[in-house]
Design brief:
binds 3-methyl-2-oxobutanoic acid; globular; 8-stranded parallel beta barrel; single chain; TIM Barrel; 270 residues; alpha/beta
Length: 270
């Protein structure tokens, strides 16, 4: 564990907001990146269903299964000592019934090594959230633009621009809080609306494409590292250009093999 740091709990995430500090969150899908992010002091590591796009190469998150999430979560759990590890419930792993949600969320904790789950939905999900919290599963909500609704939206469009839609998103935020969630992701909504929700809620808001006035921020790690460089999003800040660097490294490796430069004497055994 990074020196002097105790494990982050769902309760501690609430306390970070109470202290007026910002919450840092990032996705991971494997042990190596999870370990590096953990060592760098990130508060929350989310095993996002975005794995369907960045790891599996799907065009959206719909095909991701609960077994996929558990597999990647278990890998991340081996790399994480301090951060709160959150498993993202994929499409149709919790919507069919409360019983289905309980079984699958339970598997995320028991088999995946997660300490909490995230699920998309507002008022429609309150009973599910309440039951999960009742049995001891901390829940992170996710409202605004919900990627699992892509087939209803017809794309990943900004949500909450019109007054009626904004009012519904506000009601969703309050409903998720009242149901017992410890935090809530706000995705792709106007910054003013995200700020208003953040002011009204006692639980922390974690924004993605929702502006600076949330209690914390989350990004997909492949975006932040410049690994998924086929995408360029306005709301992403790239801190590395890994895709470019990997292409360059692999080109050089190929050149070195072809020229006979690799392996050298020093890289060989007698
Ligand atoms: O799946 C995911 O990575 C997410 C975050 C971007 C919030 O839901």
């Amino acid at each position: 564990m990074p020196a002097g740091k105790s494990p982050v709990t769902a309760f501690e995430i609430l306390n970070i907001k109470r202290r007026g500090e910002k919450i840092t969150a990032l996705t991971a899908y494997d042990a190596t990146f999870a370990r590096l992010e953990d060592e760098a002091g990130i508060d929350i590591i989310l095993v996002g269903d975005s794995l369907g796009m960045v790891v599996q190469g799907c065009s959206n998150t719909i095909p991701v299964t609960i077994d996929d999430v558990i597999y990647h979560c278990r890998a991340c759990a081996r790399g994480v000592e301090r951060a709160l590890l959150v498993a993202d419930m994929p499409f149709m792993s919790y919507q069919a019934s409360i019983e289905q949600a309980l079984i699958n969320a339970g598997r995320c904790l028991k088999e995946g090594g997660a300490q909490a789950v995230k699920l998309e939905g507002g008022e429609a999900m309150t009973e599910t959230i309440r039951r999960l919290v009742d049995v001891g599963i901390p829940v992170m909500g996710h409202i605004g633009m919900q990627p699992q609704m892509v087939n209803i939206y017809g794309g990943y469009k900004l949500q909450g621009k019109e007054t009626l839609q904004a009012e519904q998103i506000l009601r969703n935020a309050e409903a998720v809080q009242d149901a017992g969630a410890f935090s809530i992701v706000l995705e792709k909504i106007p910054r003013g609306l995200a700020g208003e929700i953040t002011k009204r809620l006692n639980i922390p808001t974690i924004g993605i494409a929702a502006g600076p006035d949330c209690d914390g921020q989350i990004l997909v790690n492949y975006d932040l590292f410049g690994l998924a460089d086929q995408y360029r999003f306005k709301f992403v800040r790239r801190y590395l250009e890994m895709a470019r660097d990997i292409r360059d490294a692999v080109k050089k490796y190929g050149e070195d093999i072809r020229s006979g430069d690799f392996p050298s004497d020093a890289e060989s055994f007698e």
